[in-house]
Specification:
By secondary structure, the protein is mainly alpha-helical. It has one domain. The chain is built from three helices and no strands. It has helices at residues 3-17, 27-46, 51-69. Helix 1 (3-17) runs parallel beside helix 3 and helix 2 packs antiparallel against helix 3. The radius of gyration is 13 Å and the shape is elongated. The termini are far apart.
C-alpha cells in the first residue's frame, strides 16, 4: 500500500470512529452503544489500515445503529 493509500485509509478510519461516540445518548442507549464503541476503537487501533478495516468498521456501525434502534 502506498503512502497516499495508507493516509486515505487512516482518514477514513478517523472519520468513522466519531460515529461510535455515545456520550450524547440517553443512559439506556449508552449501555448498548458503549461496548460497540470500545470494540470499534480496539479494531481501529490494532488492525493495519486497509479498505477491509474501513469496511468492517462501517458494518459494525450499521450493526450498532440497529441495536440502538431496538431500544427506541
Amino acid at each position: 500500500m502506498s503512502g497516499s493509500e495508507t493516509s486515505q485509509s487512516l482518514n477514513a478510519t478517523n472519520r468513522m470512529i466519531k460515529y461510535f461516540e455515545y456520550g450524547h445518548l440517553p443512559e439506556k442507549l449508552q449501555a448498548v452503544s458503549k461496548p460497540i464503541c470500545e470494540l470499534a476503537q480496539k479494531m481501529a487501533d490494532s488492525l493495519p489500515e486497509s479498505a477491509e478495516k474501513t469496511a468492517g468498521l462501517r458494518k459494525l456501525l450499521e450493526a450498532k445503529d440497529c441495536f440502538v434502534r431496538t431500544l427506541l
